[in-house]
Design a protein that fits this description.
CATH topology: Growth Hormone, Chain: A
Main location: membrane
Number of helices: 19
CATH class: Mainly Alpha
Largest sheet: none
Number of strands: 0
Protein name: MFS general substrate transporter
Oligomer: single chain
Keywords: Membrane, Transmembrane, Transmembrane helix, Transport
Shape: globular
Mean pLDDT: 86
Low-confidence stretches: 1-22
Radius of gyration: 23 Å
InterPro entries: MFS, MFS_dom, MFS_trans_sf
Structural class: mainly alpha
GO molecular function: transmembrane transporter activity
Number of domains: 1
């Protein structure tokens, strides 16, 4: 067969993908497709969102407990103890990301996620009984170990169920659910502090104890209801499962997992795009963690009372949830990623400048709204952008783990540049966060240029992208 004919076939594949919005769906009743997708949505997204909300609360409630009296009891005001206790969680969180994702398929999502949730719930519970700063750090290390595989597993599982331009709304939906609940955790924690002295236990310790118990109970719920991968799912009938797999195969040709090899591992690990997305994810999580760990402290430093600081912490998260879903809907609707991520970077920068440099507390507080709105939407946005532009589940497992591990580096960055010495405005931390946003804008520009160029070559029959004929990058 001639090379010219090969090129014509490649161009035909591309045109079929571009012109047929739902090629695999055409064989099924649209009502059947929509009903099945709704079943998947309701079975998966609320529960995973709730579990991730608990994960966010358990990793970031240190700032709330500090304001509630832990600082005095454990002497976290000495040197950089608070920053170290916050940061040390991320070391095992980063180290165990890739190994966790590699065993996820072998172990199965239900067992894997249950072990993660119950394990970090026990670590959270233990934090309520620590007598000193050193043991607090030990519990934070255990928390990082058990949470390490959780978020990449969630992203991996969700992205195997949907077509590329359906993913960001779903990622945003479970993330939205988590940040709303996480935002109101400060008010819940404030209520728990009224248990101060009950059973001879301090109010801040009760925050860890009660939230740890809830987490362990949710681990049991995960065992009962968390869905597995599409090819292993049991809550769908055979026709529904076949339809889901056919949609994924038509969309990106990776409905069936391909075996992992060392060659595939290293190709995915050293792919420049893996690290481009990883640095973008770091740049997104850095301000999100900064708000999570320091919002209550910053608000308290504006002159608000302790009680008011707890209450006011919640509302920037509500705004972030609305913004997050709006941009996710816009991205899926337009089938564009980079431009909407860039818009959120600009919003985040504006918020950081307002919080850092405005003189009026109300304006500084409004800056936290903008910062959280810009940062939070980028977290699912970067993950969707990445998942749209790869095929093969082996590559998805490795690259997703690397990217989310770099999110842990963003957590380390946030907890170390917002230093106690810079309280209450944390100006060096503000500028470090702005630098992350500018870095992300540069990477978005580079990715867009390279993707555009390669798509043009693929349309001309000069290149096959991701070893998948007809595949085009999402820009």
């Amino acid at each position: 067969m001639s090379s010219t004919h090969d090129s014509d076939l490649k161009i035909d594949d591309i045109e079929k993908r571009e012109n047929a919005a739902v090629p695999a769906d055409a064989h099924y009743d649209p009502k059947f497709v929509q009903k099945t997708l709704r079943m998947v949505d309701w079975r998966m997204l609320p529960l995973l969102g709730l579990l991730y909300a608990v994960a966010l609360i358990d990793r970031t409630n240190l700032g709330i407990a500090r304001t509630a009296g832990m600082q005095q009891d454990l002497r976290l005001d000495i040197g950089d103890r608070y920053s170290i206790a916050s940061m040390i969680y991320f070391v095992p969180y980063i180290i165990f990301q890739i190994p966790s994702n590699l065993i996820l398929r072998r172990m199965g999502s239900r067992l894997f996620l249950t072990i993660c949730v119950v394990g970090w719930g026990a670590a959270q519970l233990g934090m309520g009984f620590v007598p000193n700063w050193g043991l607090l750090c030990v519990c934070r290390v255990l928390l990082g170990i058990f949470e390490a595989g959780f978020f990449p597993a969630l992203v991996f599982i969700i992205t195997t169920w949907y077509k590329r331009h359906e993913v960001q709304k779903r990622l945003a939906a479970f993330y939205l659910f988590s940040i709303v609940i996480g935002g109101f955790s400060s008010i819940l924690a404030y209520g728990i502090t009224f248990m101060d002295g009950s059973g001879g236990i301090a109010g801040w310790a009760w925050i860890f104890i009660l939230e740890g118990i809830v987490t362990i109970l949710l681990g049991i719920l995960a065992w009962l209801f968390v869905p597995d991968f599409p090819d292993k799912s049991r809550f769908l009938n055979p026709e529904q499962r076949t339809m889901i797999l056919a949609r994924i195969e038509a969309d990106r040709s990776d409905s069936v997992p391909d075996p992992m090899t060392w060659s595939k591992f290293f190709n995915a690990f050293f792919d420049p795009f893996t690290w481009s997305f990883a640095i973008m994810f770091l740049s997104s999580t850095m301000p999100a963690y900064a708000v999570g760990f320091f919002a209550t402290i910053i608000i308290h430093g504006m002159g608000y009372t302790e009680a008011m600081a707890f209450i006011l912490t919640a509302f920037p998260f509500v705004a972030a949830a609305i913004s997050c879903f709006f941009f996710a809907w816009l991205a899926d609707k337009t089938r564009k990623r980079a431009v909407w991520l860039a818009a959120q970077n600009v919003i985040c920068i504006a918020g950081l400048l307002a919080t850092g440099y405005a003189s009026q507390p109300g304006v500084r507080y409004f800056g936290l709204f903008l910062t959280n709105m810009g940062a939070s939407g980028c977290v699912p946005g970067v993950l969707a952008y990445h998942s749209n532009n790869i095929t093969k589940q082996s590559k998805r497992a490795v690259s997703t783990a690397v990217i989310i591990a770099m999110g842990g580096v963003g957590g380390i960055f946030a907890t170390t540049v917002y230093r106690q010495a810079d309280y209450p405005k944390y100006i060096p931390g503000i500028w470090a966060t702005i630098a992350c946003q500018l870095t992300m804008l540069i990477l978005l520009s580079i990715n867009s240029f390279v993707y555009y160029t390669r798509n043009k070559q693929a349309r001309e029959g000069k290149r096959v992208l991701e070893d998948t004929p007809g595949f085009l990058y999402t820009i």
